[in-house]
From TrEMBL:
Residues 5-167 form the SGNH hydrolase-type esterase domain. This is Lipase. It comes from Pseudoflavonifractor gallinarum. Transmembrane segments: none annotated. Pfam families: Lipase_GDSL_2 (PF13472). InterPro entries: Ester_Hydrolysis_Enzymes, SGNH_hydro, SGNH_hydro_sf.
Length: 177
């Protein structure tokens, strides 16, 4: 099965303990754990700092599943949950795959931390998750809410810890059954 994981630094596997964009080891990144557990051919298209793109990427026709998790950086850059959801709808609508091959994952809610200095961002991240669910229903695509997977976050309130990646992988594997 050919899978693409398209997202931001939490898809990339960013290790927030370093300053230079380092990554956790493969055995601690959710994308690599998913590949190891399933035997699927998985492309990690995570990118540090990625906001929701204006246009959808070209997706190879042999893609069996496109997993999309975006929106956190949009909120951190000052967009409202509604603005981020509008951008996400435009992005997802431009993807040339059958809708049953797209899985939208709402990122887990942020927590107070170095990058999250106020509770409003946490509330916005929860609101965004609800908007993602409604968007997935409207577009008739698959949906998962990572907020239900108890993801441990690092000191910054945004990035997954190594345990967070493992918890994310476990939640996603359960969702894909």
């Amino acid at each position: 099965m050919n899978v693409i994981c398209f997202g931001d630094s939490n898809t990339y596997g960013y290790d927030p303990r370093g300053y230079f964009g380092g990554r956790y080891d493969a055995d601690c990144r959710w994308v690599d754990i998913l590949a190891a557990e399933t035997g699927w051919d998985i492309s990690n298209m995570g990118q540090n700092g990625r906001e929701i793109p204006v246009a959808a990427p070209a997706v190879p026709v042999d893609t069996d599943l496109l997993i999309v998790m975006l929106g956190t950086n949009d909120l951190l850059q000052g967009r409202s949950p509604e603005q981020a959801a509008e951008r996400l709808e435009r992005f997802l609508s431009g993807i040339s795959l059958n809708c049953n091959k797209i899985l939208l994952i709402a990122p887990p809610p942020m927590a107070m931390g170095e990058w999250v200095p106020n509770p409003q961002l946490i509330e916005d991240s929860r609101t965004f998750a609800r908007l993602c669910r409604a968007l997935a229903e409207r577009l008739n695509i698959r949906f998962a809410d990572a907020g239900k997977w108890d993801i441990p976050l690092a000191y910054d309130g945004v990035h997954f810890t190594e345990q967070g990646h493992k918890a994310f992988a476990a939640g996603l594997l359960e969702e894909l059954k």
